Amino acid sequence: MSKLDLRKKYKKLRAELSEEEIDDLSVAVANNLLKLPIWEQSFYHIFLSIQKQKEINTEFILHILQGKDKNIVVSKSNFENNTLEHILLTDATILKVNSWGIPEPIDGIPIAEEKIEVVFVPLLAFDHRGNRVGYGKGFYDKFLSKCNAEVIKIGLSFFTPEEKIGGILSTDIGLDYCVTPSKFYTFN
């Protein structure tokens, strides 16, 4: 199936989820995340959920990271060149929802991509090979291409994988894992 068709399909599936279902599924994803061999790292990048897109509620993962005393990194979007600036999330970090509905830090301590060891990647769909479909702007592919080669890339999904995503480009960066409410998938 093409990326465009998959975007339509999964936006529709998400739209059908209630807030309660999103929270229940998000808790299950967070619990399955605990089974991954990723907890020895120090710097974890996490996306902050866009509520109007009915994304996975990453608040539960944030609590896990805080409980494990990890360095949490969040991003600020630049829509002029589709890039992300990475900021350390601290108690003093002020978040504001931008015009796209994305909660972002107003300012803070910048963190270089090379320092980030684990990235939780937003997506609409993924396949059995670890390919993913996002919103189509390339923010995460650009970001991940600047990270060190050992960075662990983890997709988070409410849904099971597609057999195969069509139209994968050489600039598309695949996942190492994808975590769903019922299990996790390992790639590479």
TrEMBL record:
Keyword field contains Transmembrane: no
Chain segments annotated as transmembrane: none
GO molecular-function term, one example from the UniProt record: 5-formyltetrahydrofolate cyclo-ligase activity
UniProt entry tagged with the keyword Kinase: no
Pfam families recorded: 5-FTHF_cyc-lig
Cofactor(s) for this UniProt protein: Mg(2+)
Catalytic activity: (6S)-5-formyl-5,6,7,8-tetrahydrofolate + ATP = (6R)-5,10-methenyltetrahydrofolate + ADP + phosphate
Keyword set, alphabetical order: ATP-binding, Ligase, Magnesium, Metal-binding, Nucleotide-binding
InterPro entries: FTHF_cligase (IPR002698), FTHF_cligase-like_sf (IPR024185), NagB/RpiA_transferase-like (IPR037171)
Domain of life from the UniProt record: Bacteria
Enzyme Commission number(s) from the entry: 6.3.3.2
Family: Belongs to the 5-formyltetrahydrofolate cyclo-ligase family.
Name of the protein in question: 5-formyltetrahydrofolate cyclo-ligase
Organism: Aquimarina rubra
